[in-house]
Amino acid sequence: MYEPDSPTIDPAAQTDDWPLPGDPTILFLPMGTDVAMLERIDRESMSFWQDSWRRLRKNKLALTGGVFVILFTLIAIFGPMLTRYNPNSQQLRLTNQGPSATHWFGTDQFGRDLFTRVVYGIRISLIVAYVSTVFSVAIGVTYGTVSAVLGGQVDNVMMRIVDIMMGIPSLLYLILLIVVLGPGLWSIIAAFALTGWLGMARMVRAEVLSLKNREFVLASRALGTRMRTIAARHLVPNALGTIIVLATLSIPGAIFAEAFLSYIGLGITAPQASLGVLASDASDTFMTFPHQLLFPALAISLIILFFNFLGDGLRDALDPKMKK
Questions:
Q1: What was the pLDDT predicted at 136?
Q2: What pTM did the predictor assign?
Q3: Is there a domain that residue 42 lies in?
Q4: Residues 135, 139, 145, 148: what is their CA dihedral angle, to the nearest 10 degrees?
Q5: What is the pLDDT of residue 310?
Q6: Domain residues for 290?
C-alpha cells in the first residue's frame, strides 16, 4: 500500500514560532526550566529536635500535660514553703475538720493538715518515680545496647533472660524485693529500678539493631572507630527519642505502683505522707469524711493523667514517620 513520504521541513523556513502547534512531525518538545522555582525552599530547614518541638507545640493536650507536670514538680520542690504546718504534727482537738481558710484541704483523723500531707505525698511520689526511672533507663539502655552491639549468641542469651523475667508479673517482683529489702522510700526506689528496665532494654535493642547497619556506622567502623565508641556517640544518641518517650510513659506506672503498694502497707510507711498512705488512712472514714480520700486520689489521678498526655505527645512529636 502506498504511503506518502513524511513532509520535510526546510531549515531556512524555521522561525521563532517553529515548530508549529499540531505539527505531526514533532513528538516531543523541550520543557523550559524555571531556575528560580528549582532554587526555591518550600520549608525552612530545621534539625530533628526543632521539628519535633514544632510538632509538639501543635499538640494542645501534650502542652497542657507538660505545663501541669512542671507545676506538680514545682509543688513537690517548693510546696512545703506554702504551708506552716508540720505534716506529722497531730492536733487532736482539730480532728476531721472540713476544708477551710485555715486548713485548705481540711484535717485528718489525727488533726494533721491535709494540704501539707498531700504536698509531701506528691513530693514522695515524684521522688520515687523520677529516681527509679533514671536508674531503670540507665540499666535498660546499657543492657539493650550491649545486647544489640555484641549480637549473635550473646544477644540471644541476653534477650531470653529478659523474656523469662517479663513472663513473671512485675508486681510480684516488686513485692518480693520490698519484702527482702523492707518497706521504705529507698527500698521501693531500688525495687522499681530493678524491675522497670526490661521494656526499655527491649526497645533500645530494637532501635540499635536498626541503626548499627546504617551507612554512617559502617563509615565509622571503616575509619577504625571502636564499636563501643560508635555506640556511645552515634547509636544511643540516635535512639534518644525512643528513650525519652519510654521514660516519660513509665513514670505514671511507677507513681501508681507506689501508691498501690503504700496503700496495702508494702511501700512508704506511716507517718510519712505518701499519697497511697493518705488514701489508705482515709478509706475507713470515706463515707463520713469523703474529703480525706478525695484530695489524695485526685492528686494521683491528675499526675498520672498529665504524664500520659505529655508522653503521648512526645511519642507523636519524636516519631520521624510523623514528619510532614
A1: 92
A2: 0.78
A3: no
A4: -140
A5: 92
A6: 101-322
Whole-angstrom distance, CA of residue 92 vs CA of residue 101: 19
Residue 1: predicted pLDDT: 47
Could you give the CA distance from residue 75 to residue 102 in angstroms, rounded to a whole number? 19
How many CB atoms within 10 Å of residue 19?
Answer: 11
| Residues pairing with 107 in the sheet | 113
**Residue 9, pLDDT score:** 47
Residue 59 grid coordinates: 499538640
24 domain-assigned:
no
Residue 3 lies in a domain: no
And the C-alpha cell for 27? 513528538
**Cell 497542657 sits on residue:** 64
Residue 198 maps to a domain: yes
Mean pLDDT by 10 residues, the chain (324 residues): 49 51 54 56 66 84 92 89 83 83 86 89 91 92 91 90 86 82 83 87 89 82 82 84 88 89 81 85 84 90 93 81 50
